[in-house]
Design a protein that fits this description.
- The longest helix is centred in the C-terminal third of the chain and has 36 residues.
- The chain is an alpha/beta fold.
- It is elongated, with a radius of gyration of 25 Å.
- It is about 55% helix and about 10% strand.
- Helix 1 links the parallel strand 1 and strand 2.
């Protein structure tokens, strides 16, 4: 919601930016974002010359880029330091907790959720979710203009709508991916060895599992455990998963197929679109992997040519070569 308070006089043409948590991956990304657009940026983090309070006192706009599970407490601690006429932004993956922490704060507040990670090179076409808290027209217009000129796709919604949708965008996919990874561990399946049997879609799914486990466990725990709507969503997940497991375990073909067809009808034309898009993605993914596998094939042939013939030797050589280049 935009406001126009009596103590808000004007908004600077070139506001000074401060980033709390500016040495983290996302903090560095947004440091680049602002500096590329000509802004003066100050940062605070562990070990920096400037403290959080220094950054707040020097800046017109303060971006809080801290771990999700600590964000609300940090915002509550800093809230008394923020001043009228100052714009505070956060980039947490959930929006209701930080918005609540900023209730009653003298500064303006807008919650942001960049739907991309610190590895992007270009912001054009990336999605930015914007959840207005309380903000005056001028800083709001400045922020929207900045994001639009960067080529970001902007979606404006309430914090409540955001967090409910994140149960579908993040919570359920993350939880099911974590469970898949745990299953492979419990079954003693070596990821590299499984690639000897892979289909293109399994390879892509395995990459997504590996990608998740390559990142911060605390972040994924916080996204799942701090979502205000987690209980109702997990109940649906538990029920549907149980029904599906029961159909598979007891060979209930009709129940499985009926549920499958109902979900296909629910998705409608998106199923055809998704099939087309993933076919293109899988083709690209397969070509990329084939480039790496060519070297593995050459290494395997060289190894086999120098190995005395036996029943097990070719298999052993192939295993070693594939593990080395998986």
């Amino acid at each position: 919601m935009t406001e126009n308070p009596s103590d808000f006089k004007s908004w600077p043409k070139h506001p000074r930016i401060g980033i709390i948590g500016g040495l983290g991956a996302m903090g560095k990304l947004f440091h680049r974002f602002f500096t590329e657009r000509g802004a003066t940026v100050a940062v605070s983090d562990v070990g920096t010359p400037l403290s959080n309070h220094d950054v707040i006192d020097q800046s017109h706009v303060v971006l809080v880029s801290v771990p999700l599970h600590r964000a609300s407490n940090i915002l509550q601690d800093l809230a008394p330091r923020f001043r009228p006429g100052q714009l505070v932004l956060d980039i947490c993956s959930l929006k209701m907790p930080p918005q609540k922490a900023m209730e009653g704060c003298a500064a303006w507040y807008v919650g942001l959720h960049p739907m991309y990670g610190p590895y992007v090179e270009d912001f054009v076409g990336q999605t930015m979710i914007v959840c207005p808290g309380h903000v005056a027209p001028q800083p709001w217009q400045w922020l929207m203009s900045l994001l639009e000129k960067a080529g970001l796709k902007i979606h404006i919604c309430s914090a409540q709508e955001h967090d409910r949708m994140m149960t579908v965008i993040q919570l359920i996919p993350h939880v099911t991916t974590v469970v898949l990874g745990h299953c492979l561990r419990e079954m003693g399946i070596d990821a590299a060895e499984s690639l000897r049997f892979t289909s293109p879609i399994y390879r892509l799914e395995l990459d997504l599992i590996g990608r998740l486990f390559a990142q911060d466990a605390a972040l994924y725990a916080a996204i799942a455990m701090e979502n205000p709507y987690k209980s109702e969503v997990l109940e649906v997940l538990r029920r549907v998963f149980g029904e599906t497991m029961d159909a598979v375990e007891h060979g209930r073909w009709q129940a499985f197929i009926q549920a499958f067809e109902q979900t296909r009808a629910h998705f409608g034309e998106f199923c055809t679109q998704a099939l087309h898009e993933t076919n293109q993605l899988l083709t690209w993914h397969q070509n990329a992997n084939n480039h790496g596998n060519q070297k593995a094939s050459v290494d395997n042939k060289a190894k086999l040519s120098s190995t005395p013939f036996s029943y097990n030797a070719p298999l052993q050589g192939a295993q070693e070569g594939e593990k080395a280049h998986a």
